[in-house]
Amino acid sequence: MSQPYQQTMQTMKNVKANTLALQGNKLSLAAYRASILQSQATFTTAEEFVKANPPTEEKLNPSYQKFLAGISLAKESMDVVLKGISSFSPSKLYAAREMGKQAQQQVIDGYSHF
Predict the structure, then answer these.
(1) Domains along the chain?
(2) What distance in Å separates the CA atoms of residue 112 and residue 98, rounded to the nearest whole number?
């Protein structure tokens, strides 16, 4: 589980950095959109791997579910970002940011018990 965790956390850091670059006019909207699509693909790959490798010990199941939920939420937040970009909706982008924060915390909390 360490590889999907590391990939997920690094991708979350990249999304944050790219969002700040976009806000600072250091990244074009097209490049930002492309980075979000790449992030979404990374989260999908991590989610599929985690789903395919559930824990064998029952006591790890709650942590596994939280970890998986965090990755799924991160993936979902990328969809919200893409919708926010296409509709120029700041409220959707703000909602995606909050989802991302929650997803990051779930991933960290879930993984910490493995």
Answers:
(1) 2-111 (1.20.1440)
(2) 21
